[in-house]
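Structure ticket #2291
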Amino acid sequence: MTASGSADALVIGGGILGCSIAWNLARQGAGRVVLCERGEVGAATTSRAAALVSGVRSDAAQTALALETRRAVAELREELGDDLALHEVGSLHLAASPESERTLEELSGRARKCGEPCEWLTPAEASSRAPWLRTVGVTRVAYLPRDGFIDPYLLAAAYARAARARGVEIRTGVEVLGISIEGGRIRGVTTSAGDLSVPLVFDAAGPWAGLLAAGAGEHLPMAPVRSHYWITAQHGDVPAGSPVVVLPDAAAYARPEVGRLLFGLRESTSIALDPRAVPADLADLRFESDPDGWETLEECAPAFARFFPALEHIPLEHYVSGPSSYTPDGRHVVGRLPSLDGFWVAAGCCGAGIAVSGGVGRALVLAALGLDSPFDLEPFRPDRFGSVDAFEPAWLARCAAGRSRKRSG
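Resolution: structure written out below.
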């Protein structure tokens, strides 16, 4: 490889995870850091996220990543002098079945273990905080007051600004085309702007993250799966400051959006894509099956309308869909590819990329630099499924099922 430049670390992808990694590399004094993004920072899947920010996740390892994100947002506020539009409105978790009651008990236990406040409310108290919410049949309600949501584009831009201020070179409009390997180790990359000699590469390219690894003979255990949500017309029962609501018995979540209600639904059979079929510009992406989400609404709306009766007559103003990378077990893909020294992955967000962005960025950088770390990345190992074919239809279906089984926000 004839290099036209060199760096100490390269980040591929300028979405929420890539920008967080770049900022954390700079904070750890990793030398010359370059981030390459073929489009614009935060403009692909990040900007389409519903961007819930919850601290208590499904297990201790994921919870640690999410709680670190909250700390990262506070540090960015201090570093940049911006407020970052974090809406700490809290989250309501409702149970209307014995299974969901057990889920809430587990949620409360995890919150207690990590010192997160969690309150038990009556159904009437829940409705008073979210007036749009109908709670007939609800048996238990847990409230986490520190949860909320954020503008995902602004958060990605904040990570990028803070990284740039610390010396990271952010190259937009530059695509990484291939990687150079020698003796099982990364030596550099080829980009649309020339070759770069670099010993440490972080692949944070979202639904496209697996393509470079596949070119090196390694398949990442994930697939692009459609995530989507709807935004209603203005509604008087969705006041500013009303909480996020998680409805596991309807496989749904909802949050306020400027006087409107944003809600997401998970159909019984989610739609996965071959990673090679995801266009570089998501404006060109159109899902062949149920492209406008009407079949999902037909399937899922009755269960959601049980909690939001206005759904039967309120107009829907916006529909947003895009590919979110899912794994069969609902865990992220974070760590080093064992067969490729110097190649680290941050992908497989499973619909929680915004919520874990600060944690993933810090944890991955500490691991890559061989520094002491409070994070357990073992559950997210890229090789935990053994050898997979990321393009095989049965594998894509397993990843799609990972989304359909999800019941959290």
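Closing remark: The chain has a mean pLDDT of 96.
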